[in-house]
């Protein structure tokens, strides 16, 4: 975590120069106050940018994301801000942590190491995501592996749950 905190502090000027918005998603309850301060600082300093968006996940899990979205919706309903009839997929999308992005649902998820599971990552958002499982470890996922992945993805026929 100290490397992440150092990144947040040292790269603000780079991120601003290149107009990169930074968002950090995940359970912030177990993050140190020092790191939380750095996260808030980099998010605040870059919040106005729109063209590039770096989303970093710390202590993120899909189950936690869905759970916190449900709790937010339940509280809004309890407080009279929502009616049960208002609850739909779009509302849940808006309550998930990835709502900070213009494109919260990934088109492609690359899971290195050959493991064929999504490991509690973007459970709701991955409903129509293409999943790619290369047999290389993350440090070995180089340009050649990336090109293989993109070639594979280009050959996919995206149906988004529909039969053709």
Automatic annotation (TrEMBL):
Keyword field: Transferase
SUPFAM superfamilies tied to this protein: Undecaprenyl diphosphate synthase
GO molecular function, one term: transferase activity
Gene Ontology CC entries for this record: cytoplasm
Cofactors demanded by this protein: Mg(2+)
Keyword Signal: no
Name of this protein: Alkyl transferase
Source organism per UniProt: Eruca vesicaria subsp. sativa (Garden rocket)
């Amino acid at each position: 975590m100290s490397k992440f905190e150092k990144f947040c502090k040292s790269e603000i000027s780079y991120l601003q120069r290149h107009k990169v918005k930074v968002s950090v998603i995940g359970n912030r309850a177990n993050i140190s106050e020092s790191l939380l301060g750095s996260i808030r600082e980099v998010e605040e300093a870059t919040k106005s940018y729109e063209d590039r968006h770096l989303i970093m996940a710390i202590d993120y899990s899909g189950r936690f994301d869905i759970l916190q979205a449900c709790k937010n919706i339940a509280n809004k309903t309890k407080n009279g801000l929502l009616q049960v009839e208002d609850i739909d997929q779009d509302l849940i999308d808006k309550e998930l942590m990835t709502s900070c992005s213009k494109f919260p649902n990934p088109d492609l998820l690359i899971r290195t190491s050959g493991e064929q599971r999504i490991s509690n990552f973007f459970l709701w958002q991955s409903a129509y995501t293409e999943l790619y499982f290369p047999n290389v470890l993350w440090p070995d996922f180089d340009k050649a592996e990336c090109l293989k992945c993109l070639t594979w993805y280009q050959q996919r026929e995206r149906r988004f749950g529909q039969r053709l």
